[in-house]
Design a protein that fits this description.
The complex is a heterodimer of chains A (204) and B (227).
Chain A lengths: L2 E11 L2 E12 L3 E5 L6 H8 L7 E7 L4 E2 L8 E4 L11 H12 L5 H10 L15 H14 L4 E5 L7 H14 L4 E5 L3 H4 L4 E4 L2
Parallel strand pairs in A: 3-8, 3-9, 6-7, 7-8
Antiparallel strand pairs in A: 1-2, 1-4, 4-5
Chain B lengths: L7 H19 L1 H21 L6 H19 L2 H8 L3 H7 L2 H31 L6 H26 L5 H28 L8 H27 L1
Helix pairs in contact in B: 1-6, 2-3, 2-6, 3-6, 3-8, 6-7, 6-9, 7-8, 7-9, 8-9
Classes of the chains: A alpha/beta (204), B mainly alpha (227).
């Protein structure tokens, strides 16, 4: 059982308050949607929780069954998909997947890579350079990268951005598969996306 | 989650081979370094000719060429991550130490490649000579490692700034000044055909510099990369 605790979290950029007093606690199998208008701080909140931005106030804690995960090792359990997350254009999809697996500390076989690519609808395109991919194909590949490590915490920012109907169905299937055992956070404005989550945090 | 099966070395090598592969496909860093090195060398040789320059001037010219060539390309490995927007996913997936070691090895490869090409050309174009090949290679190796050890951390710092190119040389210069002074002094003695024992104090300094800079960079890189 893994858990994520967000306590009195706040973020300011200079004098401008982005959000404040965010509190929630999630355990494996919980999912939450962060909703709000454009500029309300959804992506910023995800970045603060992911420790990509320093909070102005409050704290974020990741725990496994027995102990707190440190700033050095919580990333081993976290995957993140976002439109502003870029992969290496001058590497092929397979090279990207192999690199992210190795650099995360584990080995991945060719069969596992093919299975992941098939799962996101990119079978047969693994040897193509990412620079030749459409924005939708890149988004699908980000899901393949995210699922490499079978995450305990899955963060999705605008999860179906750039995707066609088939791509959206793949995302919904992935969320459905992982929501039983994984902590899932979704930042979105799309009703059909935040309905995937069990609860909602609304930013104003 | 799959059980982590690879350690720091294989993670670092993954970063190294990824950068090497990207460099072989884009040639952005090597082209910048080689263009600057060859152009500077050509200008120096045409301006001064083979006019019997003193060892002091020759050694200063050699390390000036090395310094500015390094400045033109060594930051590319971090700047490329920022400009292509890949630093975020790298930050989320890779340990800072493996990133630093991988990028250090990559920059070392880049500068060794440049040195292997530029150094023979320097000897040909400027009529420099020495009988002390081994001491020269030792000083050259330590100099290259020192340049890379110090500038890799600086490259990570300036990659987040808006004016990257100019800032890299400006921030690196104070850190590298002492190193360059010692390198120029040691190379001058070698061009003067003095024995290895004559440069022993410089060698001690160079070894200490490389060890200290690498250690400090390893300790600080996490904060530079993630803050």
């Amino acid at each position: 059982m893994y858990s994520l605790t967000v306590e009195n979290l706040g973020k300011r950029f200079g004098a401008r308050k982005v959000f404040s007093k965010i509190d929630f606690e999630l355990h494996s199998g919980d999912s939450i949607a962060i909703v709000g208008s454009n500029g309300s701080g959804k992506s910023t909140l995800l970045k603060v929780i992911l420790s990509l931005l320093v909070p102005s106030k409050g704290k974020v804690e990741y725990k496994n069954e027995t102990e707190l995960l440190t700033d050095d090792n919580f990333r081993d359990y976290v995957s993140f998909v976002s439109p502003y997350l870029n992969l290496y254009d001058h590497l092929t999809a397979e090279e990207n997947l192999t690199f992210f697996a190795t650099v995360s500390g584990f080995n991945v076989t060719g069969k596992e890579i093919n299975n992941l690519l098939a799962k996101v609808g990119l079978e047969g395109r693994g040897v193509d350079f990412v620079m030749g991919y459409s924005s939708g194909m890149k988004q699908r590949l980000k899901y393949a990268v995210a699922l490499l490590k079978k995450p305990e915490f899955l963060f999705l920012d605008e999860p179906t951005s750039n995707l066609d109907d088939a791509g959206k169905k793949i995302v919904f299937d992935i969320v459905e598969e992982y929501r039983k055992e994984t902590v899932i956070l979704i930042a979105t404005n799309e009703k059909e996306e935040y309905e995937l989550a069990k609860s909602i945090v609304r930013l104003t | 989650m799959p059980k982590a099966s690879s350690g720091l070395l294989s993670r670092s090598l993954a970063v190294y081979f990824k950068d090497l592969r990207l460099e072989l496909r884009t040639k952005s860093g090597l082209n910048a370094i080689m263009m600057f090195g060859v152009t500077t060398l050509a200008v120096v040789s045409f301006a001064l000719g083979q006019s019997g320059l003193s060892p002091k001037v020759l050694s200063a010219l050699f390390w000036i060429i090395m310094f500015f060539s390094a400045m033109s390309g060594l930051a590319q490995t971090f700047i490329r991550e920022e400009e292509t927007g890949t630093s975020l996913i790298l930050n989320l997936t890779a340990e800072p130490n493996s990133i630093y070691i991988g990028k250090l090895l990559f920059n070392l490869t880049l500068l060794i490649t440049m040195t292997t090409i530029i150094t023979p050309m320097f000897f040909v174009f400027t009529d420099a000579s020495t009988d002390n090949i081994l001491p020269f290679l030792v000083v050259l190796g330590l100099g290259v490692f020192g340049l890379v050890a110090a500038t890799t951390l600086v490259a990570a710092i300036i990659s987040k700034a808006s004016v990257k190119g100019a800032l890299f040389a400006v921030v690196s210069f104070p850190i590298l000044m002492v190193l360059l002074m010692v390198l120029v002094g040691a190379t001058e003695k070698i061009f003067d055909n003095e024995s290895l024992s004559a440069v022993s104090s410089e060698l001690q300094f160079l070894i200490a510099y490389v060890v200290v800079m690498t250690t400090i960079s390893l300790l600080l890189f996490k904060f530079v990369w993630r803050e």
